[in-house]
Amino acid sequence: MTSPARPPTLSLMKTQNDMAFKEWAIVCQALEEGKQTIVLRKGGVKEVDGELQPEHPEFFLYPTYGAHVAEGIKPDWRPRLHKLDKEAKDTKHVHFRLYAIVESVHKVTDWEVAKSLIPFTILSDQEMEKEFNAGDQPGLFVFILRVHSLAVPMEMLRKAAHDKDPIWAPLGTSLFTAGAFQVIPEGAWPYTRDKIRKMVQA
Q1: Interstrand relation of 51-54 and 168-176 (parallel, antiparallel or unpaired)
Q2: Which pLDDT does position 202 carry in this prediction?
Q3: What is the DSSP string of 34-45?
Q4: How far is CA 177 from CA 89, 147, 196, in A?
Q5: Segments of the chain with pLDDT less than 70
Q6: Residue 190: how many CA atoms within 13 Å on its side-chain side?
């Protein structure tokens, strides 16, 4: 079964924001290239008047690095990991290139539906199944993201506050979004978005 959510009403992107969403750097790269438009989580969602909503409707993408990332992504994406080594070794700074608006969030509790999303992510089959079955209850929240590239990449010093939550990183200071442009063009985006919505709402 799936639980659909009405997309938040967002007529305009915020001009500045102090919230970031943690994601593997290699997944951020896939988002930047338009190869992926969803992210998957076990949390980060609230329920308001019976509707599922993200805790934060828009945010910067905060790239993270881990020793076991290669095992969790599709083999054809693993060679790209070495290109991220320079930033991964910079333990003092966070590098930002992307900003995202959540178009909708859906709870997927049917493994067959979750499995059908594998072609729309760079995660490996094994990683998807592991994430789906993690925790007390099987299932995943699927965030459909409208991703934007920042006009000028930014960086900031890493802070201890960034590590307190596994999903969200409060930056402590606002960064600006001026000049950010959509990764997937306006004309193509509805097709991409609606194709995934139909799958998770089936």
Answers
A1: unpaired
A2: 65
A3: TS--EEEES--E
A4: 26, 12, 26
A5: 1-11, 202
A6: 2
Instruction: Measure the CA–CA gap between 52 and 31, rounded to whole angstroms.
Output: 23
Burial classification of residue 89, based on how many CB atoms lie within 10 Å of its CB (0-12 exposed, 13-18 middle, 19 or more buried): exposed
CB-based contacts of 90, cutoff 8 Å, min separation 6:
none
Is residue 61 a contact partner of residue 21, using CB atoms and an 8 Å limit? Answer: yes
62 and 162 Cβ atoms separated by less than 8 Å: yes
Please count the helices (runs of H) and the strands (runs of E) in the chain.
6, 10
Distance CA 124, CA 73 (A): 5
pLDDT in tens, 35-46: 999 999 999 999
Measured in residues, the chain has a length of: 202
SS (H, E, C) 91-117: CCEEEEEEEEEEEEEEEECCHHHHHHC
Distance CA 19, CA 100 (A): 11
Q: Are 21 and 39 in contact (CB under 8 A)?
A: yes
The span from the CA of 47 to the CA of 151, in Å, is 34
Could you tell me if 141 and 41 are in contact, meaning their C-beta atoms sit under 8 angstroms apart?
yes
Tell me the C-alpha distance between 160 and 62, whole Å.
14
- To which H or E segment does residue 191 belong? helix 189-200
